[in-house]
User: What shape does this take?
Amino acid sequence: MDRTAYSPGETVLVSVNETFFNGSNLTAYVIFPTLAVTGLTLIPSETGYTAEYSPQHGVVLGTYTVFVSGENVTETAEFDIRTLSVYPDLEESYLPGNISISGDITDTASGNPANASVEIIIDGITLSTSATEGFFSTDYQAVSTGQKNLSITANDDENITGTATASFEVYALSGDTTKPVINSVSDTPDPVESGGNVTITADVTDNVEVGTVLVEINGTGYPMSLPELWMNRTLLFFDGFESGNLTTNNWTVSGTGDPWQVEEGTSKAYEGLFNALASGPGEKILETDIGTAGYENLNLSLCYGVSGLSGSGYFAIDWYDGEQWNSIFNFTDHTVQYTYFNSSLPDGACDNPDFKLRFRCSLGPGDTARIDNLELTGMGIPSEPYGYLYDTSGLAPGVYSYTVHASDSSENEAVPLTGSFTVVDGIPGISSISASPDPVDQGENITISVDVIDDFEVNGVLVNIEGINNTVAEGVNTESELFFDGFESGSLETNNWTCSGSGNPWFIHYKPNKAHAGDYSLLVTNTDNDGGGASSVETDIDTTGYSEINLSFYYNCDLSADKLEYFSVDWYDGEEWNCLLNTSFIENADLFYNSALPAAAGDNPEFKLRFNCYSTNSADSVRVDNVEVKGKRIVPRPFEYLYNTSALSPGVYMYTVYANDTLGREAVPVEGNFTVQEPTSGGETTPGDEEPGGGGGFETPDALSPIINLISASPDPAEQGENISFTANVTENVGVGTVLVEIEGTNYTMSRLRVEARLFADDFESGSLETQNWTCSGSGNPWTVGTDGLTNKAVATNTGGVSAIEKNIDTAGYEDVTFSFEARTKELDTGGNLTVDWYNGTQWTNLLQTVVTESTGFNYELPAGAGNNSDLKIRFLCDIGEGEYCYVDNVEVNGTGNVPDMYEYSFDSSGLLPGTRAYTVYANDSSGNAADPRTENFTVINSPPFLSPIGPGTVNESELLTIKLSATDPNGDPIIYGSNASFGTLAGDTFTWMPGFTDSGVYHVEFTASDGEMNDSEAVTITVNESYVNFSVSKRIEKGATPDSYSVVLNLTSHVDFNGSGLRVYDLLPDNFTLADPAPACSSSQGNIYCWNLDLAAGESRTVTYTLAGTGRYSLEDAFVVGVDPQ
Assistant: This one.
């Protein structure tokens, strides 16, 4: 037998060695424990004979004997048929909490205790334990009430099994009306890298028993469980030294000789580019603080390498417990290549806020010690919190709220508690840099501007100029010059001034002693000469992306007030002109006009400035000089550094910008350059100094061209068919005109790059409404900042009348404005609600009136009128009584605006073949001056499809083999499958083949997946196992119904043994079957029984010859004599 024991229903396989019996005529029997006997059919096999016995359920348990006998030979063997009995020991009902599941396992026949593994399934939870000397026990944590059904399966070391089912009731104490309390919620790590796990925990208590705890994230509830079910090992500290410095992880160095440092070089680092190095003679120490509060089961691992260590040299690792240093490892051998060190730390290192780690070494000349990939992990110490491990894969960077709900065993519900975590993705990026003005006159200031994109919070920005790092401050309050004209060019066209009106036009006048500065000024005189009327001059000034617009200029009026003469200044907002100044006073000196313009002048591409004059005397005139418009950049708020070029000689200078965020992640540095030129004088002079009256000056065109500072293509390389974003940073002293990108001989117009920016946010953690300039109004008690025990919120309670808080948010320069917040109300009477409105400058519009008992997030896309609006306001309002509450939190307003100096074009690469090609960016300014083109390359690739692994295949002769192919293409191209097989069928992605009885062997087939150009393939081995067919035929003669009629019945049964994989029995129709002398047709058949009727006389005999042929080369031929005894 193949085993010594079997369960009822299992097949017992008996093998008989032919050599032992030496060809004897054999018989075999099974003798039952009751001494009953049943015969076995012996079937020839390669080594002798086999037989099968299949005891059914309900058979007698005990020891069975197999008896085999031949000529003068007998042999016996024994096996047991037995089963296990499972007896659960359970009460009918339990309270929620820990429940002991126990019972006994015995051998059913003998009643003896049995050792067995035990698996218990209850409420979809599998508990595994074991029975020792028949007894098993394990604990089940019941967190919900109701009927609990369980199944128990036992399995001993001979694979004998037993099962049982049971049930019990989990009930709650009657009369419990006390709600559970969610004391606190927390999440870690926060922020979390996108795709990483964040552990959300909740401390929940109840007077009887906590029932269900759920955490709701993005509208989906997830069950929270106790610590032993959710705690994972946490990475507390890691340093692969890839930052290139020791300050990132707060390492400190001490000792003698050259200190520890970061070494660069791929051949020296264990992994990456950097490692920590100590070298040269001296005692050297490298240490850092790593608080382990809240963690246990600490494990330290690292890679270290040492060379030298002559004499008393050593390399050691220590840890500090708050009072003294303790040794972890001390190495004194001479040399070892990088070796992996991995060790758990003592209990004193756990949950220790004063934990420190240090590396010490004593080196001689030429000795070195290196460490890399240092990692400290620990397990969070379970207290009593419930937890859930949430996978942030698929979440975009941002802040995500979660709400914890809980109920007890009596289904009383706790007040939900809300928290939030932040998802970040990747390192910060320096999106653009620029220097302005460029070129800059020697001795003048140049402004280095940097745009940094980060999904968390930018920490610091540096610009290195001439080897010196300078801190770049955030340019939030930096005022930029948007327009200036001192008219020193001598031409109105330089800054696109246009004249209008019926009177004599304005012109640029050369008169050094009349101009406020320089040699030129803007002048008009005697506009109404010959009844001409008034005269105006105006220009366009695009203030897009800027707010807090300020206008200044110098003017001198020499008019006659009694003749209704005047000088006025207007600005245009896109719809109408607005007056700034209207005067007719006669002044004997230049006056300075300086004024902040209304909010609508900011972020306005249609802003215009106009000077007007009406004068009737030839001696009456108005002169204007040094016109300047300034504004403050809105978003993005770049970092700026003002650098004085006095110490630089004329030439081109490189500068490098660095940035990191508050998480310590470092951006890839970006380089730029600027040009310092010799100081330039004012505009050319023209002979003659004519008095006013005819525009005696001359005009010189704008000669400065725009500059294409930086161009890029992303992604690069790009998959064929993927959109490629081409960007360009273009600056200009006056105004950029058109920016084009040439791709494959075609020019495409680039547009201003727009990004979404946060315009306002308040989580009220400052503790005051005044911090963000909220204003309170209404007759009721005002809103305040309060806390729910976890975070601050804006709170209204017992207002006794209408009470509101509102906030003004300037959205000038921004479109697609969104408004989001979280809100909750508590115990509001019927009719009470929280009202949320927005204001467009003329009227309030309602967004929401709600009663929401759980903290809920709301998000609104505001109408177009909310964009480009300096008067936008938001308001929260309620009228509630004593004991009623309205809470508001995480208020945020976002909008989309232009990125200064940045242009973009999105290009569809579907029509491009794979390869590297050039693109060129062109730009001109509003005067038609062209920038020097800038050319770079980008690459289009067609990645091959990826054929999922197939692996080898195995099939028996005459059985069906099916192979399912699967592939993906990064370009989304359709996939065509192929193979080099000369057999089988490949239909789409499915290959099928049924080998015949002569096809055994090993076949090598290559399957391919192609996108029409590229392909992926796998060579697969297919093994066809040979089917060994053994035919056996039994025959008998039965007497017919009449004396002269006899029936020959042939019982045909074929046994097919597939290559040792087990005996299988089939009913096969023979390919041919003949009966000789004579050969009548088969009279009937049923299954594998075939009948022929033969007419035989008394005493007659005939020879019957038959051939039974299977598929392929297997056949059986025989002959026998059929006869009837004489009467």
